[in-house]
Design a protein that fits this description.
- The chain is an alpha+beta fold and 189 residues long.
- 28% of the residues lie in helices and 43% in strands.
- The chain has one domain: Hypothetical Protein Pfu-838710-001, CATH 2.40.320.
- It contains six helices and ten strands.
- Strands 1, 2, 3, 4, 5, 6, 7, 8, 9 and 10 form a ten-stranded antiparallel sheet that branches.
- The longest helix has 14 residues, at 151-164.
Length: 189
């Protein structure tokens, strides 16, 4: 999958419930895949400012797997346009605490911990998630895997899908959940 990348957009949802969003997404023809609880521990890469670059180094733990994920820095123009298009590298691990010790021992520092409850759906080539981020709020995230030189087409398709859901009261969110959690902890908004 080295010639493809993940393109995603997320939307902050105001004044709605998980049940309401589920009905809207299922009405579109999306197939419900399941629920999960995830705990992500985000790290700063030594010698760089991962917050500024939107670089992602994290340990993710869910009911079904544990992994370390790395995503390279995000282009400023992509963030300002409300989407992320990145190569993603995932490495399965057996023990979250051992992986955390390893990353800390090589000079990484913990930036934030994000806890979320996620409902997963699939519609054609799209993955659709309803994410309830602890202490932050409710979001819809839409992902598509696409060819490296076809990012704009992927973004347009995500926008068309979101428009087709006919939702009200949403805002395109251009920050990673990690950053939103950090802002909330600092009292910013």
């Amino acid at each position: 999958m080295t010639n493809k990348l993940e393109i995603e957009k997320k939307y902050y949802i105001k004044n709605s419930t998980i049940d309401d969003l589920t009905k809207i997404i299922e009405k579109s023809g999306a197939e419900y895949i399941g629920d999960s609880k995830q705990r992500d521990i985000y790290f700063n890469v030594p010698g760089r400012d991962s917050l500024t670059s939107k670089e992602c180094l994290r340990i993710r733990e869910s009911e079904t797997k544990k992994e370390i994920t790395y995503k390279p820095p995000t282009k400023e123009s992509d963030m300002n346009n409300g989407f992320f298009a990145k190569k993603e590298i995932n490495l399965l691990i057996q023990d979250v605490e051992v992986a955390k010790i390893l990353l800390l021992d090589i000079g990484c520092t913990v930036l934030a911990e994000v806890k979320k409850e996620r409902k997963r759906f699939r519609l054609d080539k799209f993955k659709i998630f309803i994410d309830n981020i602890q202490n932050v709020g409710l979001f819809i995230e839409i992902e598509i895997m696409d060819i490296f030189d076809n990012i704009q087409k992927g973004i347009s398709e995500i926008d068309e899908l979101m428009d087709g859901l006919n939702m009200n009261n949403y805002i395109t969110e251009n920050k990673p959940y990690r950053d939103l959690v950090i802002e909330k902890e600092k009292g910013e908004e």
